[in-house]
Amino acid sequence: MHGEPAFPADFTHMPYTNPDAPKGGHLVVGVLGTFDSLNPMIVKGVPLQQTRGHVIESLMARGHDEPFTLYGLLAESIETDDARSYVTFRINPKAAFSDGKPVTAEDVLFSQELLRTKGRPNHRLYYSKVVSAEALDARTVRFDLTGASDRELPLILGLMPILPKHATDEATFEHTSMTPLIGSGPYRFGEVRPGSSVVMQRNPDYWGRDLAINRGLWNFDEIRFEFFRESNAAFEAFKRGLYDFRIETEPLRWSSGYDFPAMQSGQVVKEVIANGSPQPSDFLVFNTRRPQFADIRVREALLLLFDFEWMNRNYFFDLYRRSGSYFAGSELSAYGVPANERERALLKPFADDVRADIMEGTFRLPSSDRSGRDRGALRRALTLLAQAGYEVSNNVLRKKTTGEPFTFEIMTTTRDQERIALAYARDLKRAGIVPSVRVVDAVQFDQRRLAYDFDMIQNRWDQSLSPGNEQAFYFGSSAADNQGTRNYMGVKSPAVDAMIAAMLETRDQSGFIAAVRALDRVLMSGFYTIPVFNVPSQWLGRWTRVERPKHSSLIGILPETWWQAPDARRQ
Description:
This protein has 18 helices and 22 strands. By secondary structure, it is α+β, with helices and mostly antiparallel strands. The mean pLDDT is 94.
């Protein structure tokens, strides 16, 4: 995206892989939730996300030790100009789908048109920027990007899923389906048990097994995804060895739950793995489409009432951190950092959209005395609520003009989310607010979240060191009323849109960082969310029958680089 790739054209393998990793064996992956579709490229249903990468490939593949650099996969060569007004991909002559049919330029054109008209909203948003697309010959495709002003777009097209035209039913593509998709990837579907498990089997004729980008990857003969509806049941299954690794997210469990026989005997190990990307951050999200959250003073007041310090000590063993930024723990974060001249120039037309203390880097999230009864935060919150037209009457917060109680619903789907919501409800009660906490299953949660049918939810936007087009999908005005996007809070801000545009147009790293930080400042100033916590590292529990490279990638855990221990015996 910026600068030059880290590796030359003749590189042999990525540094986070073991090029001599043995092939064979089985990997069992535990997944919390369920699925009713094998197609993750459409809005309908709860899909199996692992279809991408394992079964369906793209023209290029990420280098996971760089913020955003792609290397050839289906494409053996890529051509673009300095303005990135076009991009041409030439397909590797060896590239083939799992049914043996070659990948052609027609398949690329078919995929772009199908996803532009029937794919997920992010596909429709990205691929609609293409002015025209044409096949120069059977293996060469050229995309005209004139006027897009989007330097990321050639990379976005490089990551486009490539589907076989001869084996994809365009008429039924948007429907949920358990029919296995055909792709060009290293695996193809085996047994599928709807909502329960999926088996993927290595394609022995996989065309790309000798590519440098794939050396040391995709080492298991079979991968089985086992689904669990409830987190405690999933953990008990891990303790019994029913799946091979667990990315832990629950501090109590991480601190005291791993004292079981397999851990004591050395069959299971705990590992803390550094992650160079922005720290995964959870937020309580206001749906500003709801009238009770339309006033920014109300949203700021509700932020003041969230007692992170009490919750971190009593629930999380002080293992979590907290930042106001949407890019926490990285150089992209604007939290606590004064704006430089490039940021100020970008934000000058939108002076009213950024608070002075956020511009100066002096803004801090409220910090309580850990008692669970911080009076200072309560007083400041009630002052803001009064300014917004509310008052406490008979221990209930009411609208002054109508007497209507202020209340809302917090929708959750896991026990951990429910516990956070109940603790927050206790904090709110001190201000006369009694929200309802509703627990729904994973399917209903996803359906209601995609339709924006909620007041407040807990959510995480996973960010990279090279944010780009997906920010419009997360926070852009055009996504606010388009169901299926991730603009869950309903942001409609010209300032946000302008910062995203600046991010996509910049040519140098310092200008890019300035644009991202400017976006961060606008989002923080809008109080669209309540930051809940940041995860400073990745917590991994792993049965030693699977092994991993000593060097982790910039993004941390990558199971596709693992392999089965030579002496492993699965019971």
